[in-house]
């Protein structure tokens, strides 16, 4: 289902957006859209994302009978921030996000109809797969969209990780790793999507509610991202995972490392890998119709086979 811009910028009337408390009291903004009983998709966004950006995909799945749920990671979107500077995407380590995902998963499995599947974009893809390997969540199937299983670095992963590690320790680890990101800036759009209208939706949401906006990551986040993805790529549990996993990978992705995702897919027992070439950037579900439709078709076919 393709939505017009006006509807991509509107929370569905039947959906619920509310703030819930994690076990440690941290406020997490949640989205729930009850469906027709086919099952529940828990969708998790990437770094600095908000679930509003994916309402068009949610509508596609909802029209097929899926209930859709999501929450903003702590530290971004409408969830409580982790840094004194609310514009910096900071974390000391990824453990609280993994705990939040496990808690929210347990809550939704209890409250919402099965089968239950998880779809994770970018950082959400890493956290979903890490949670699977740790047996913290037990979905019928998992979809990783442009997953952050390695970071794209102009100097390579090893040197990029070393630089991030040193910079974290040379000053305030919560300081921004680079200058503020600017939605609407043409260079940033090219990193994310070739569809100018869908890209403009993000800026609309941030203008509508500036508190949702998040800027660049901290040096601590960058250090953790290099280190955590490296550990995952070496984890022997990859070869033992018995959950069907679909990986959608953009070969020209300049934010995450497509080669790392392919290597992880090769180690998984039940992996399906779909590769996207020219014309596909990082946000495959917000790309131009030809790319986005292919991505949704791949997800639909995979879930029809593994989560009927």
Automatic annotation (TrEMBL):
SUPFAM superfamilies: alpha/beta-Hydrolases. Keywords: Hydrolase. GO terms for molecular function: hydrolase activity. Pfam families: Hydrolase_4. Residues 38-289 form the Serine aminopeptidase S33 domain. PANTHER family: PHOSPHOLIPASE-RELATED (PTHR11614). This is Alpha/beta hydrolase. The lineage of its organism: Bacteria, Pseudomonadati, Pseudomonadota, Alphaproteobacteria, Sphingomonadales.
